[in-house]
Write a structure and sequence with these properties.
By secondary structure, this protein is α/β, with parallel strands linked by helices. The chain contains 14 helices and 15 strands. The model has no long low-confidence stretch (mean pLDDT 97). Bound molecules: pyridoxal-5'-phosphate.
Amino acid sequence: MDDYKHGMLMDDELLAELRKKFAFLDYDPDYGERLFFDNSGGSIRLKESIKVREKIDLLPDCPERYHQRANDFNQIMEKGKHDILNVMFGAKSGSLITELTASQAMFAMVSAVIENVNGESAVTTNIEHPSAYDSVEFYCKKNNKEFRVAEVNKDTGFVDPEAVADLIDDNTILLSVIASSNISGNIMDLENIIKAARAKKTDLYILVDAVQHLPHGTLDVERIGIDGVNFAPYKFMASRGIGFAYVSDRLSKLPHNKLIAKEDSVWELGSPTPALFASMSAVIDYVCWLGSKDNKDPNESRRKLYLKGMEKIILHERALLYRMLEGSEKIEGLRHMDKVQVFADYPDLTKRDFIVAIGIDGKDYEQLRKDYQEKGVTVYERVNTSVYSKRILEAIGLTGAIRISPFHCHTIDEIDKFLFITKELVKS
Ligand SMILES: Cc1ncc(COP(=O)(O)O)c(C=O)c1O
């Protein structure tokens, strides 16, 4: 896939077919036509995912019963679990955590490790989302462990494996590291970060925040040796109201909140929500459907179809990213537009998810976001006055940025439209 340095667009027919599967792709039902380029804050919804959720939610039955409907609900949840653990993450073992949010799932994993594993320190990075960063700091303080922070390489926007490994010793319990930056879209070199970390401490627990990465990429948790990874369905074509995480067998068995009669590896607590499992399965079915498009093997596994579907998404997004940065004979790209700065602009697009941070000389970020909205483009400003962004922005040498986060269902024409609007804003 890395051979396609500038990506590869899906063919027009497939793109037209998949676009019909999404709700409010190019207009808001109340405010009219708009380009939705804020998928990092919550992605465009797959209609089927919301439809199936409603269909199941309309039924009153309790899944913890033995009648037919209850059995159906249990099958839906079993399928959801299998889809997430096995099809999405490539796991052959491990458990699933469900919480209200991805942040809660992260806190649950961090607490299980820091409160129960013997050792003296834990490591994270200075570009983590607050849910990952604060959870490590909070449980370190509470348990008298040393809280260590690896710094991102300011020149590249990536966390170097050595920067992490330098902070790990024999008494380190945990490393928590983000899969891709929610400001620049840079995809961390998890494989080499984990290798370098484990070279210092073989049985280190490793957690990954994949909330921004999974809608744009894949992770094979067993191959690279991750103990826990979270994601948020609302950023991945489905609904708000649930955060999921994979936990490895050994992490799943550490003490955590659960009913005493349940097995050690169970993390779910209280009434389960079949509708939200079905909603996530619909997303995974959709990616597998994409993967089945030019697949010739009728017995291909769902995991392989998922990987092929994600490959189509990755390559299409990379081609759109290239167009956004480089432009065409119609209009110059962001890299070449007068007064536009592309921040953390790493040249190798194979190491970037489809998130771009920009500024326009002399323009205030909040005002710029409003100007974009007036011209029918939804984007978001990240500024260092926000608790969510301050540390992360400053870590890569910024005070603010407009974050542009389109999605794989967008087209070249929509990218061009965005570029024309940006050029108008530069002039205004
Ligand atoms: C990288 C990253 N991690 C975690 C989160 C938290 O997700 P949630 O709000 O579902 O807890 C976000 C939300 O924006 C995020 O961008």
